[in-house]
Amino acid sequence: MVAPQQAVLIKVENEKTVSYGGGINAVEGKTTWSGELGEEQQKKYVSLVDDTAWATASQRNDDSVGSGHYKIRIRTNNYVTKKFTLSLTDKKATSLYDFLMKVADSRFEKHIESLPKPNMDVIIDRKLNQK
């Protein structure tokens, strides 16, 4: 996805490995994180991609993409590469992008889990201080 002051690169390999890069890394074609899709996530991914019909569609570029757009490159099972440039308003591309961003957001989980958890005294103090 490319928009003013924004760039995101998401690669999915073998319908399992997701790689993510943002900002200048995305512009340079680099990823900084990769993770594996779980079984349910794989099913969802395949369903979303199948719903787009990109693998069987003719390559196309949306002339009304404006300053923000999705650049999509898909390689079919018979190793044919197809490219699409679609508007950020394309519902199917947005659904796939949103799903993949949720997957990529899991890169923050280990950091969030490592944060200290408040004990009951802290929770009670916060409640009292709000009044």
Which helices and strands occur, and which strands form pairs?
Elements: E1 2-3, E2 6-13, E3 17-22, H1 24-27, E4 33-36, H2 39-52, E5 60-61, E6 69-75, E7 81-87, H3 91-104, H4 109-114, H5 120-130
Helix pairs in contact: 2-3
What does this protein look like?
With 131 residues, the chain is of the alpha+beta class. It has helices spanning 24-27, 39-52, 91-104, 109-114, 120-130; strands at residues 2-3, 6-13, 17-22, 33-36, 60-61, 69-75, 81-87. The chain has one domain (2-130). Strand 1 (2-3) and strand 2 form a beta hairpin. Helix 2 (39-52) runs antiparallel to helix 3. The radius of gyration is 19 Å and the shape is elongated.
Question: Short summary of the structure?
Answer:
The chain is an alpha+beta fold and 131 residues long. The protein contains 5 helices and 7 strands; from the N terminus they run βββαβαβββααα. The longest helix is centred in the middle third of the chain and has 14 residues, at 39-52.
Structural class: alpha+beta
Count of extended strands: 7
The major sheet is characterized as: 4 strands, antiparallel
What Rg is obtained from the alpha carbons, in whole angstroms? 19 Å
Mean pLDDT: 88
Strand order of the largest sheet: 1-2-3-4
- The percentage of residues in β strands lies in 25-35%
* Low confidence ranges: none
What is the H/E order?
Answer: EEEHEHEEEHHH
Taking the alpha carbons of the first and last residues, their distance comes to: 45 Å
Helix content: 25-40%
**Domain tally:** 1
Oligomer: single chain
How many H/I helices?
A: 5
Shape: elongated
